[in-house]
Amino acid sequence: MWKLLTDLPVHLALVIINGINVDTGENAYQELLACAQSWRNRYRDIPIGEVPGVQYARKFFHSIGVDPTKRRSSSEALLNRALKDKELYSVNSLVDVGNWCSLDFLLPICVYDLNKINGNVTIRLGKEGESYSGLNHNSINLAGRYCIADETGPFGSPITDSERTAVDLATKNAALVIFSPGEYDKNLLFEKTRLFADRVQQICGGVILMTDIIG
Question: Positive or negative, the Cα torsion across 154, 157, 163, 168?
Answer without folding.
Answer: positive
